[in-house]
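Two proteins, back to back. First:
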Amino acid sequence: MRILAWHVHGSWMTAFVNSPHEVVVPVVPDRGPDGLGRATTYPWPARVREAGPEEVADLAAGGGFDVVVLQRPRDAELFHAWTGREAGRDVPAVYVEHNTPRGDVTEWRHPLADQRVVPIVHVTPFNAAKWDNGDAPVRVVEHGIPDPGHLYSGHLESLAVACNEPVRRRRIAGTDLAARIARAVPVHVYGMRTEGVGQIVTTGLAGAEELAQADLHKRMAEHRAYLHPYRWTSLGLALLEAMTLGMPVLVLAATAAPEAVPAGAGLVTADVDALASAARSLVADPALARAQGEAARRHALERFGLARFLSDWDRLLEEVAR
């Protein structure tokens, strides 16, 4: 198929573009949110190609798209503005909802809840249950992770945390909780716009930096364990990537995380002090850390493997295109 999809979520898109389909990614001159184009820090296959608004319009006019993958209300607006066509009515479409709902529980109605044409595709059963989807068709396709390999060494007696904008998102991402755990075991924060994180993690900050995905995987795997302190986000892909690397994981029991991490792969709990205690235990016992990491990797490959993800998406795309 030929699929139009905006580059919105780099890690998710990296899995999606590993399909055999031709994926056309919109690009605008400033490579802003309306069209980022191809990723520069993720390895994407050559069959993923960029197209500006005029080429998108030409392709749409010639019936060149089998499916449009929407990921924000803005995507549907752009498609209509560029092509004069409506996604879902003139061209088959799906809407991938990456996020948990925001605000009070009474305000959790999805933007596509009042239509019955475009399926809302949630990335976790948790998200599907929490959003008010109204009359819209609902599907769930759980995440898939390209296997980076069993890279874990764990020789650094510290914890890795992956979080973009950990200062602005301190409550959602649990940066303040990471600060509490860092008093027991140092943490290293990886992600975009980490400036100022030292004002939150005032004790035990081992470092803060942004790396390309391949470099990030190698560096994360050097830490004794991965810490996932997120309070209210969709299931973090960095958590699944850490498990696939063979890292033991210390996870705040929130949103879909408890269902994603099996027993024996680390610790999942809402008790922050227990997470700190488990971190100390893993630092003291490298063999325990390695055994838990191997359990994490086995589970991640089985449940969140790339082949399962792409197979699920192929079935859904075929259904929508028909």
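And the second protein:
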Amino acid sequence: MLSNCFEKRATFKNFCWALGTPQDVYDVTCCQSRALLGATYSMRIAIKRRRAFTLAGILSMASIAVVNTATAMAPADLAYRNGYVYTVDANDSVQKALAIRDGRIVYVGDEAGIDVYIGPRTRVVDLRGRMLMPGLVDGHMHPINGGASLLKCNLNYERLTLQQMQARIQACIDQTRSREPSSWLEVVNWFQEAMLPAGTVATCAVLDGLKTSRPIFVSSSFGHTALVNTRAIQLAGIDAGTKDPQDGKIGRTPAGAPTGILEDAAQHLVTRLIPPPSPGDDVRAAKAALDALRKQGITTFLDAAATEANLAAFAKLQHQGRLTARAHFALLIEPSEGTEPQKVVSRLIELRHRYDQGAAAVRPTMTVRNVKLFLDGVISAPALTGAMLEPYLLPADASSPPIWQPGKSRGPDVYFPAPVLNALLVAVSRAGFEPHMHADGDRAVRAGLDAAAALRSEFPLRDIRVAMAHDEIADRSDFPRFQKLNVVPVLSFQWQKRAPDTVDNLQNYLGPARFQLVEPAGFLAEAGARIAYGSDWPVDPLNEWFALKVGVTRMNSPAAGPEYAARLGEDKGLTRQQVLRAITLNSSYELHQDGATGSLELGKLADVIVLDRNILDIPSEQIADTKVMQTVVGGRMVYSTD
């Protein structure tokens, strides 16, 4: 009942003004009491129409109004005062206090107005000037993989020499000797693009030198490349005659022998042999992920390549009352499924029927509304699997410094051919799903936008939230198409800096002109795009505040070294207000949840966080040091440093 009132609060607010209701009374009385408005409005209309009112009828209406006014002014469960309450509303307004009752926001305003909501059982938090803002909404991550990475042999995204890499993996082997000789060793978060010295290429020989008989699978932090040892190659039956899969590539020597590098779908040749995690393993990974999310202030997330195992793990926690963030899932569609859209839709509908719990409610639930489609790989070397409009540059000879000239490769074909992609998007949208596409290179971005245009033509009046993640490079002519087609670019701000993957392994391969367009957040914002944020965890460590800092400054941490100290490209970046809106209201919009979360407004779900500093009023480089002091989801405090 209240939710309908709040959805129409602008109409009610104007009505209150028409009645002459004072503004300070409006917050407490007018918008929060639908019955009061209904009674008042009915009396005015009836009088206007000259209908007779009995005294009993008038008193009855008045009594309803009084009762509902009292309900609206009932004490809050939780009240914050004396703070910097950044609302992310249409005006980016700042207030002083906020009250929560029954999991929803019932007051946002000044100090004087909060008193009426404080009763004997209200928990009152004196913010002492600290910043309170909407909970973070991460519009693209892989939480089960992220949680599992915290529990596996982990290279922690560090810059390593081949010898250091060997030593780290050997330590994991030595700690698990009981699993010799045949159990798989999975190693995660290998920062392939940052190997030392720059340009170092790892092959199976690195792993073959370890003291073990076990098959080894090392996953790049980007998730698009793996390194395996010879034992794994043999078990998978990969040799010089093995063909590359449709959307992947096997690394080979000049003679055609496998090098141990597997790109994209080629990884499946090995991963199909690795025993899948048990349901218990997945639940433990989900619990670890939720713990990490709470500490970052994340109150809603999208699992951007969800499998049924992922759904089952979070469903178990949700049924136990242990789901501490609103969970959205984009069900993965493989390119091999693309030619049978109706079969795909049947599978999606069956999973939605089993796991979707409907619209967002006070208690965190699971939403199965999105589908995930990979259009290409990654634009950085050594993979160069991003689909580009023009060829990658390659060194023409062994001169020093080398001369870079266009090569023959523009990367792979887009993983879904245009007719297949168009038909898929129409089919899944007709079934009530919303597409979430991975596009890294500018040709993949264009293919995604073309598919979105075909979808808009098919459903011109439908509110379908099309999202396209990463968009690491796009042609200038495609910038305005995001707004025109209402395609939400879901960007990982932490990539918008000079680093080994953007400088050592990308700059020369693109050339000066294209390199200026890399990570085009500012360009897209200037073109009117509604930018959302997604961390892509565990591609990077889960650190939303570092990402926001980079989104504003386009600069790396000083600890990265002087070679990565300058700003990235000519893109001017985003303002603080823009990055905060991207990670709150815009990501909520992406997930079709902006009516319930993303801003601090009356009637919305009480997903809020308290910070140790005001990130709108500190030197920009200090944004990265922000610490979350409280995380509240649906009025329930799920994390606190107190």
